[in-house]
Write a structure and sequence with these properties.
43% helix; alpha/beta; seven-stranded parallel beta sheet; 257 residues; Rossmann fold; binds nicotinamide-adenine-dinucleotide; two-stranded antiparallel sheet; 7 helices
Amino acid sequence: MGLLDKQVAIVTGAGQGLGKTIALEFAQEGAAVALLEINAETVKAVEAEIRASGGEARAYPLDITDYDAYAAAVADLLSWKGKIDVLVNNAAIAIYGTILTDTLDAWRKQISVNLEAVYMGSKLVAPHMVEKRYGRIISITSIQGFASSGDCGAYNSAKGAIIAFTKSMAVELGQYNILVNAVAPGFMRTPMSFVNGVDETTTPDFIEWYVNRGKVPLRRTGYPEDVSGTVVFLASSYCRYMTGQLLVVDGGLMSTF
Ligand SMILES: NC(=O)c1ccc[n+]([C@@H]2O[C@H](COP(=O)([O-])OP(=O)(O)OC[C@H]3O[C@@H](n4cnc5c(N)ncnc54)[C@H](O)[C@@H]3O)[C@@H](O)[C@H]2O)c1
């Protein structure tokens, strides 16, 4: 028996990084997983990997900011499985710049992928969860939603808004047995941790400050596997009286000053 047996889940941004690991772990725990991802090549590979290990997955290569494409994927999933138990809003992009250097275009793009698509996905699945009187909406935000590195205001604004939106939906949907929670990772080694071609979790500054000096008390960067278990927990029956919460998975970083 897996922790997510007979569950049907959507994971956005499932082609690489955290989304891929969440999708693989969900499938391993018995869920059928809809993989929503803009990169057709990576998402097909994840679909193949899950199927090869005996799991159930269907790839939906699409841009989650395209409402009609997102709605068509939800409709297809419903005709395949008849229900949607879990939505993991994971996909995001980061475009670095400060208020002095960034552009309106970059701001709009990040708000569109990182926040508006979270709204769209939630809006598309919530009525079906209401119908079944069961659902889990889990959004991946970031410690940048409440503490800033000083170089990505639009990303941070979207991540902060996700925390407020999570609480808002938790209050609105609690009466239908739909739990809405968020997860805030700290530093994680994924393709996103590459900034200007350099993996920020491997630089000498990172190693000295965050690892050697213990700014991250667990003295290492995080990996997708460090976060995916928390997402599995939130989707599983072990989580049943917790909603509107933010779980910070950062190796202790936010507990230091
Ligand atoms: N990597 C970190 O250090 C870190 C830290 C805190 C929070 N997070 C959050 O974790 C989540 C996953 O990040 P990651 O590090 O795995 O990132 P990543 O860049 O490695 O993966 C993101 C995935 O989302 C997909 N994607 C992007 N835009 C899309 C769109 N419009 N439609 C469909 N798919 C799209 C990408 O193609 C990619 O496969 C994000 O919400 C991110 O903000 C990451």
